[in-house]
Each structure stands twice: as structure tokens, then as C-alpha cells.
Amino acid sequence: MKLELISFKLCPFVQRAIIILKKQKIDYDITFINPMDPPDWFKAISPTGQVPLLKANDEVIFESSVISEFANDISENDLHPSDAIQKAKNRAWIQFSSTMFDDLFNLVTGDEETYAKAKESLFAKLKKVEAIKDTNTFFNGVDFAMIDAAFAPIFMRLSWINEFTDNALSISEFNNLSAWSGAILAVDEVQDSVSEGIDDVYYSNIEAREGHLSTLLVDE
Ligand SMILES: N[C@@H](CCC(=O)N[C@@H](CS)C(=O)NCC(=O)O)C(=O)O
Q1: Quick check: do 3-73 and 84-215 share a fold?
Q2: Ligand 1 first shell, C-beta below 6 A
């Protein structure tokens, strides 16, 4: 099957799909576009106008969670737990985590009030995840799973922001999440899921947005 992932370098949803494709050792081509100024061919095939979009032969698959599930479905190794209840719980927490991207967007772009509300919202969610996460390396134990890929872009962006500021969004109060974040960010496929220098692009993006977060940046 010929696979082409239509992508945008800074997109956390693209990153989730890339991690699964890499973890499953699936061959694919990657094409970068700017979804804010998409080419006509993309507009013609994308129902939502959003990336990621996966072209599988002549078929179009959209929505990052569906692309990730598809990549898992066509692989021998299942990155979900086999137990139906555990799998459902993993999927539920993946969906729960997706709302954190709205918080991250508001944290990067918002004025002081929006930033404060977004931080409160994000940390209330992290607290809930901390309460159900145990001391296992990954979410389900020693093996990296779909849910670990789903959280990777969140932890990566939090670690960038903490590095760029005086730990403005430190998660050190959450012991289980801190350890889990460290384990996820050390995985090769997670590190390889972003282009080199993307952290600098993220820094520049924070500066360019001129939100409250840009006032917290410390010179590198
Ligand atoms: N629910 C979508 C969200 C994807 C998304 O928001 N992608 C952004 C880039 S990170 C995008 O394409 N934005 C352009 C737009 O919304 O017009 C998914 O999970 O694939």
C-alpha cells in the first residue's frame, strides 16, 4: 500500500500519527503543507482542511486518531491493550488528552487572563491523569502503547515551554506524570517524530504570537 502523510511541521496531531507510523515501522512518504494557506490540491481532497491527512493508495483518511488507529490496524503488533475494557479506557483517556491542545493553544497565544485560565484548565486535567496513572514506565506497563504516543506531543511542548521559561508550566508536582513524560520523551520514535530544530520554531512561534507566554521567555 502506498501511503502519503500530508503534514505540517509544528502540528501536534501530525506528530501523534508519525509516532505510530514509526513505531509500527510502516513506510510512508511525507508532504508538508501550510494548513493556514493550503494548496488547491489539498483543499480538493480534504473534508476538514486540516492536517494530518493520509492518502492510502487513492483513498483519503483524515483525523489523527483515525490515522493512528489505521496504522495500528494494518500492523501485526497491536499497540493497544488486548483487554477490551483496558482498550476502551485507553481510548477514553486519549480523547480526554486531546482537549489539552486547546489549552496549549490558548497558553501560547492568549493574553494574561486567557493564559491563566488555560493553565488552570490544563493543570486540572493533568491532575486527573496523575490520579489514574501508576508508577509503570508507560501507561499500561513496560510497553509503549497508542496512548503514550497520544500524550507525547503534550509532554514535548510542556518541556519546551519549561526550558524556554523559568519552568512556567512545570509538572514536577505530579510525580507519576513527570516520570511518564521522561520515559515517553526518551523513546527514539518520539524524538524522531519532529524535524530537527522544531523547538526553535516553537520558540519563535511563541514570540510571534505576542501573548502572555512571550513575556515569560528567558533568553537562551
Ligand atoms: N481533530 C483534528 C485536528 C487537526 C488540526 O487541528 N490540525 C491543524 C494543524 S495542527 C490544522 O490543520 N489547522 C488548519 C485549520 O484548522 O484550518 C485531528 O486530530 O486530526
Answers
A1: no
A2: 8, 11, 13, 35, 49-52, 63-65
Alpha-carbon span 118 to 100, nearest angstrom: 9
Separation of alpha carbons 33 and 44, rounded Å = 14
Low-confidence ranges of the chain (pLDDT < 50): none
CATH of span 3-73: 3.40.30.10
**Helix segments in the chain, DSSP class H:** 12-23, 40-45, 64-73, 84-98, 100-109, 112-132, 146-164, 175-185, 188-191, 198-209, 212-215
Predicted pLDDT at 220 = 63
Q: Whose CA is nearest to atom 12 of ligand 1?
A: 50
The CA distances from residue 91 to 24, 94, 104, 119, 148, in Å, are 18, 5, 21, 24, 11
The pTM (predicted TM-score) of the whole model is: 0.97
> Do 159 and 172 meet the contact criterion of CB atoms below 8 Å apart?
no
CA distance 53 to 5: 6
Domain boundaries, the chain: 3-73, 84-215
Question: CA–CA separation, 66 vs 163, rounded Å?
Answer: 32
CA of 104 to the centre of ligand 1 (A): 14
Structurally, at CATH architecture level, domain 84-215 sits in Up-down Bundle (1.20)
* Alpha carbon nearest to ligand 1 atom 5, residue: 50
Rounded to the nearest 10°, the torsion over CA 74, 75, 81, 84 is 30
According to the model, what pLDDT value does residue 114 have?
98
